[in-house]
Each structure stands twice: as C-alpha cells, then as structure tokens.
Amino acid sequence: MPPALTFNVSASRVWRATAGTLSRLMTRAPLFWGILLMLLTTGLWALAFVVPVVLGGSSAAEITVGRFLVYGALSLASLGATRTGQLSWRLFGIAFLLALAGNVAFYFILTLGIQLSGATFAILVIGMVPVTISLFGRVATDEGRLRDIAPPLGLFILGVVTFNLGKTDFLRDLSDFSALGTLCLLACLVMWTWYAIANARFLRQHPNIDAREWNSLIGAASLVAVLLAAPIFYGLGELRSPLAIPRQEMASIVWWSIVLGGGSTWLAYLLFNLAARLLKVSLLGQLIIFEAIFGVFYVFLVSGKIPNLVEMTGMAVALLGIWWSVRRLQRERRA
C-alpha cells in the first residue's frame, strides 16, 4: 500500500475511533456538552470582530476571500481523511446553498449594511438572530408551544435591546438611516436564520453523516462560492491584486486569513455541527448571543474599550434569559 494511502487510511481510522468515543461521552450529558461546544464555537466566531479592527486598511472583500480560501483548502484536505463514500452531487448542492447563505454572501452583504446604515444599527438587527432562530426553529421542528419559552425569550430580547441601546453612538447611527442598508441587514437576518435552522435540521435528520465530513463539504462549497465571487469583487474595485498589496499588509492578511479560516470558520463550524446534534434548535439559537459577548471582550483587549454600565446590564439580562431557558429545557427532558 502506498505511504500516502496508508497515512490517509490511518488518519481516517484514528478520527472515527476518537469521534466514536466522544459521541458516547456526549450522549450521557447532551445538554452540558452541547452548551460547552456552543461556548467554544461562539468564542471562535467572535474572532471575526477583531480582524477588521486589526486590518483596518483592507477591504471586507479581501478579508472574506482570504478567510474562505483557507477554510476551503483545509476542508478539501480533510475530506480525504473522512471520506465515507456517502458524498453525492445532491449533498454538495445542499452544502453550496448553506455555504452561500451562511458564509460568503452573508459576510459581504453584512459589510454593505454596516457601511450604509452604521455599525450600531447593524448590531441591533443582527443581534436578533438568536431570537429569530429560537422562534422559527421551534415552529419548524415542532419542539413545543411558543408560549412555553415566551417569558425567558422576552427577557432575552430585553437584554439584547438594552445592550445595543448602551452603545455610545446609537443615536448618531440611527440618524444615518438608509433604506438600502436596512434591506441588506434584514437579508442577513433572514439568511443566517435559515442557515442555522436548515443546517441543524439536516444534521438531526441524517445522523449517519459525519459532522466533520459535512463541515468539510460546506468548506469545499464555500471555496467554490468565493472563487466565483472573487471576479465580481475585483470588478467592483473591492479586491486588489496580491502584487498590488504592500508586503507587510499582505503578510498580515495571510496570517489573519489563517486564523479566520482555520479557527473561526473550519474548527468553529465543526463544533457547531456537533452541538446541533445535542441541543434543541431554540436553545442553539439563544446561545449565539455569546458571540456578541465574546466579541465585546475581544475588542476590549485590542482597543482598550470597556463596556459601559448599560451594555453590561444588557449582557447580564440576556444571560439571565438564557439561564432561564436552559432550566425550562432541563425540566422538559426530565418530564
């Protein structure tokens, strides 16, 4: 047997043995492990808030292309170690739609919305993603009556709104209202809500599909999507030729593309897919609030900005709503 093939088979066996052990461990306490995985996931996702601050001279298109080129390359490499023969063009088509909605198009349209409507208004709109996932996910999966989670969800909404009202530039951003920017942000809200619900439902309905393999397939689809989008970005003047970028800036773009593509995307989505098998969609959606919370602290570490009292109060109220929701879900599991 050729050495490369031997390594590939060995890596596949090691991964499946490790995955099997972890799966048995997680099924004993699915709520605990699901929440832990979502905390790790949102912590990695929140790294995306720091990169635009560090790479202030680079466009959103350049960051997007770099991120998903790395993610796609890692995904293609890992497909060889996890390939089970279950892949098909139908699965790739589903993965492409998820990749387009939840990755490439989402990030670019979100950037346009921020540029047109202001950062704080964007945070207020996108901050409703956990709420829309909880509401529509509960209806789509028939997890129970909406009124069962109405009180904790109401507290959670109050916390999110309070957190965004605490922004010092809130009124200034609202004064720069843009209809096109608002449409962009609402489109992002719809896209990510659909992505989270569709992805979680697909994984729960196809337990035979390995989470790492599915994550890698979405990554490969993201690579195709970003390669198709790159000429459009270049034509719009949002993407420079690598030869036109100063060497030091190019080195920074490459480094942060590795951080985003490898950690904030590839590893984070692997953990998210594992969590989606363990948690109800309604709880999965609410836990995404931790992305914003981690993001606040990451930005604080980079810029030295401390959240004000209103922002911290909003985070505390949102966390209280999540805790209340967890308690209710625990009672449902015991019933």
From TrEMBL:
Signal peptide: none annotated. Keywords: Membrane, Transmembrane, Transmembrane helix. The keyword ATP-binding does not apply. Coiled coil: none annotated. It comes from the Bacteria. The chain crosses the membrane at residues 31-54, 60-79, 91-110, 116-137, 149-165, 177-197, 217-234, 254-276, 283-303, 309-326. This is Uncharacterized protein.
